[in-house]
Amino acid sequence: MENGEIESTDDETTPPPPTFTGRQYRPVVSHDQVSIPMSPIEPVPPPGIQMKDEGSSSGGAGSGGTKSESKLEFFGKALVDLLGVRDMTGEPAPSSPRDGEDVSITLGRQKQSGVKLGTMMGVFVPCLQNILGIIYYIRFSWIVGMAGIGESLLLVAFCGLCTFLTSISLSAIATNGAMKGGGPYYLIGRALGPEVGVSIGLCFFLGNAVAGAMYVLGAVETFLDAVPGAGIFKESATPFNGTTEIVHTPNIHDLQVYGIVVTILLCFIVFGGVKMINRVAPAFLVPVILSLFCIFIGMLASPKNDAARKDGITGLKFATFKNNWASEYQSTNNAGIPEENGAIFWNFNALVGLFFPAVTGIMAGSNRSASLKDTQRAIPIGTLAATLTTSFLYVMSVLLFGALATREQLLKNRLLTATVAWPAPVVIYVGIILSTLGAALQCLTGAPRLLAAISNDDILPVLKYFKVTEGSEPHLATLFTAFICMACVVIGNLDLITPTITMFFLLCYAGVNLSCFLLDLLDAPSWRPRWKFHHWSLSLLGATLCIVIMFLISWSFTVISLALASLIYYYVSIKGKAGDWGDGFKSAYFQLALRSLRSLGANQVHPKNWYPIPLIFCRPWGKLPENVPCHPKLADFANCMKKKGRGMSIFVSVIDGDYHELAEDAKTACRQLATYIEYKRCEGVAEIVVAPNMSEGFRGLIQTMGLGNLKPNIVVMRYPEIWRRENLIQIPSTFVGIINDCIAANKAVVIIKGLDEWPGEYQRQYGTIDLYWIVRDGGLMLLLSQLLLTKESFESCKIQVFCIAEEDVDAEELKADVKKFLYDLRMQAEVIVITMKSWEAHSDGPGAPSPDDSAKAFVGAQRRVAAYLSEMREDARREGRAELMADGKRVVVNEQQVDKFLYTTMKLNSTILKYSRMAAVVLVSLPPPPLNHPPYFYMEYMDLLVENVPRLLIVRGYRRDVVTLFT
Question: Is the pLDDT of residue 41 over 50?
Answer without folding.
Answer: no
